[in-house]
Amino acid sequence: MSNTRQYPIRCPKCGHEQSVTLYDSINIKDDPQLKQHLLANKLNAVQCPQCAFSFVVDKPLLYHDPERRIMIYLLPTRDPTNVAAAEKQFRDVLDSLRHLTPEIGATLEIHLVLSRSELVERIFLLEAQLDPRIIEYIKYLIYTRNLKKLEPREKILLFDAQDSDRENLCFVVQDAHSRRLEGILHYSRSAYAALDEMFLKAESGTKRLYELFPGLYVSARALLMDEGKKDSIAGNDAPQPT
Ligand SMILES: [Zn+2]
Questions:
Q1: Where along the chain do its domains lie?
Q2: How many Å apart are CA 175 and CA 152, to the nearest integer?
Q3: Segment holding 198, helix H or strand E
Q4: pTM higher than the cut 0.85
Q5: Ligand 1 centroid to 17 CA: how many Å?
C-alpha cells in the first residue's frame, strides 16, 4: 500500500503556503503509475495556486517493489559528508518499519539513498540484479584511477542502466554542483563478473566487501570524501580483479 500525508508547503518563489498531499511511501505493485511519476520526476510535485510555479518537494520516501523484493529509502541529504546523521535517522526508520514488516532486516534489505538520482540509479541497478556494493567498488576504482579528472567532491558517478549493454556497464559523470551530465564511462561486464566471483562467491570475499562498505549508506563517493576511511582502505590493500 502507498501512503500519503498532508504537509504545509511554502512556494519557493512567492512564499504562499498551502496544505499538500504528498507520498511518504509508494508500493509499485499496487500503484505502478507512481513509479512512472517518480522516473519522470513528477512524484510529490506541487503547483502553487498563487503564482503557478511548479516544483518537486524533496522529502523522505520509501520505495517498495514487493514482486522484486526491492525496498529503498530515500532520505534527501544536501551534505553527502554528513552520512552519520542520515544513517542514524535511517536506523530509526528501520526500527519503526520492523514492527510492521518482521522480514525487514532478516531476509529483506532496505537500501538507503540520499538523493533522487541515487534512488533512480538504485532501482535500475537492483532490477538488473547487480550488487550495489560491487557497483560502488567499481566506482571506487574508476575514481581512484582518474583522480585528476574525477574529483569525488566535484563529480558524481551514476550507474546508467539504459545505456548498458551485454558487453559493458555504463556510468555517467554528473557535475555535483550544476547536476549536468558530462560524460560516459564503460566497464566491462566480464570484469564485473570477476569481481562478483571474487567478492560474493567466497565467504572471505563477501566479508571483505562489507568491510569496505560497512555502513548503511553504500557509496564510493562518500567513502572517498571521508579521508580517514580512504586511508584505512589503502592500508587494507583493496583487492583488484584478476
Ligand atoms: Zn507561488
A1: 60-236
A2: 10
A3: helix 189-200
A4: yes
A5: 8
Strand partners, 215: none
d(CA 34, CA 23): 10
114 alpha carbon – ligand 1 mean position (Å): 27
- Compute, in angstroms, the gap from residue 53 CA to the centroid of ligand 1: 5
Q: Which amino acid type is present at position 132? A: P
Q: Give distance in angstroms: CA of 170 to centre of ligand 1.
A: 39
3-state secondary structure string across 50-91: CCCCEEECCCCEEEEECCCCEEEEECCCCCCCCHHHHHHHHH
Residue 169, C-beta contacts closer than 8 angstroms, at least 6 positions apart: 130, 135, 138, 159, 186, 187, 188, 189, 192
Phi-psi region of 152 (alpha: psi -120 to 50; beta: other; left: phi over 0): alpha
pLDDT, tens digit (0-9, with 9 covering 90-100), for 24-70? 999 999 999 999 999 999 999 999 999 999 999 999 999 999 999 99
CA of 10 to the centre of ligand 1 (A): 8
